[in-house]
């Protein structure tokens, strides 16, 4: 039988384990662990086994170990974790893809009843329909102002009712009614609250971003840089094409109104001097479009016409 460790020995062992994980892993998911049972946590550990490891502990112990590790190794970036260790949280150290690990953790949510005094994480709505309860149970519904009727000897809820609002505490009447109806409205599991990656801390929503989202945000950034550059007349790579076009338009406008000219303006001035040239230039394009339409129509007619059968194909001559 292994000797029982003292509190100081346990702290030393925990500190050693946490520092080892920090050295070995560069990616950490900070997870919120309220209402997560030991069996559920065991299943999560099994699901992540291979490239990830879950470490729970008291916040004071985790903060102490992080500070000790930063002092010993000079890794100051790891101190960014300390501000995230608030509430009932744990750490998932991983070498895998952060999005995949986060999705795997989310699979292990389990349903839970509404216990008295629990703060509701979501709105609880009781759906309409037959409850299967006998008429003697109508008092529960009356206390909660839920409209009901008796249908075939059972209580039936007429309309959907918002029984508990998110953030409200569950009362004894609400808990008793949900238990009678067999409704387990809440589900609990590890919830990723923050992501640590090589010294950088960011929100878990970043993991859900797709390549299209990144392209959209990049395009928006380029658009904002272009607008600012044009507004203050400061040349940038994004604004340069617009500046050149605007400069050409200004120079062209001056050339059209004055005797000044340059090669790129000659053609424009020539057309403005003789507007009939616009019609001449447009005629070939219109003719090409007109020729294309009959040709397409003829081709369509040819496709519709059946091929004539030859007498020789039947093996008979004209006078046979």
TrEMBL record:
Annotated region described as Disordered, given as residue ranges: 291-320
Any one annotated GO CC term: ribosome
Domain Large ribosomal subunit protein uL10-like insertion: 114-183
Domain of life the protein comes from: Eukaryota
Pfam families on file: Ribosomal_60s (PF00428), Ribosomal_L10 (PF00466), RL10P_insert (PF17777)
Keywords: Ribonucleoprotein, Ribosomal protein
Keyword DNA damage belongs to the record: no
Family recorded in the similarity comment: Belongs to the universal ribosomal protein uL10 family.
Role of this protein: Ribosomal protein P0 is the functional equivalent of E.coli protein L10.
Subunit text: P0 forms a pentameric complex by interaction with dimers of P1 and P2.
Protein name: 60S acidic ribosomal protein P0
The species this protein was found in: Salvia divinorum (Maria pastora)
């Amino acid at each position: 039988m292994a000797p029982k460790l003292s509190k100081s020995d346990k702290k030393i062992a925990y500190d050693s384990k946490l520092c080892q994980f920090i050295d070995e892993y560069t990616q950490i998911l900070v997870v919120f662990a309220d209402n997560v049972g030991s069996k559920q946590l065991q299943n999560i550990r099994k699901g992540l086994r291979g490239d990830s490891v879950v470490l729970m502990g008291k916040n004071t112990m985790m903060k102490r170990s992080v500070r000790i590790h930063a002092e010993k190794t000079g890794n100051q970036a790891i101190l960014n974790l300390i501000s995230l260790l608030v509430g009932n949280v744990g750490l998932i150290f991983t070498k895998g893809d952060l999005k995949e690990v986060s999705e795997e953790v989310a699979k292990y949510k389990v349903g839970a009843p509404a216990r008295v005094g629990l703060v509701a994480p979501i709105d609880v709505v009781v759906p309409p329909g037959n409850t299967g309860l006998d008429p003697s149970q109508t008092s529960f519904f009356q206390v909660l102002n839920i409209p009901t009727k008796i249908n075939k000897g059972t209580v039936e809820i007429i309309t959907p009712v918002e029984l508990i609002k998110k953030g409200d505490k569950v009362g004894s009447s609400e808990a008793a009614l949900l238990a009678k109806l067999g409704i387990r409205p809440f589900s609990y599991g590890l919830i990723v609250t923050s992501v640590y990656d090589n010294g950088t801390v960011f929100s878990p929503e970043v993991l859900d971003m797709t390549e299209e989202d990144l392209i959209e945000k990049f395009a928006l950034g380029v658009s904002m840089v272009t607008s600012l550059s044009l507004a203050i007349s400061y040349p940038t790579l994004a604004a340069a094409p617009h500046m050149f076009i605007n400069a050409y338009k200004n120079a062209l406008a001056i050339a059209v109104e004055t005797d000044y000219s340059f090669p790129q303006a000659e053609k424009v001035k020539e057309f403005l001097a003789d507007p009939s040239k616009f019609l001449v230039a447009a005629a070939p394009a219109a003719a090409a479009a007109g020729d294309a339409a009959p040709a397409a129509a003829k081709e369509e007619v040819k496709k519709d016409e059946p091929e004539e059968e030859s007498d020789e194909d039947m093996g008979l001559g004209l006078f046979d």
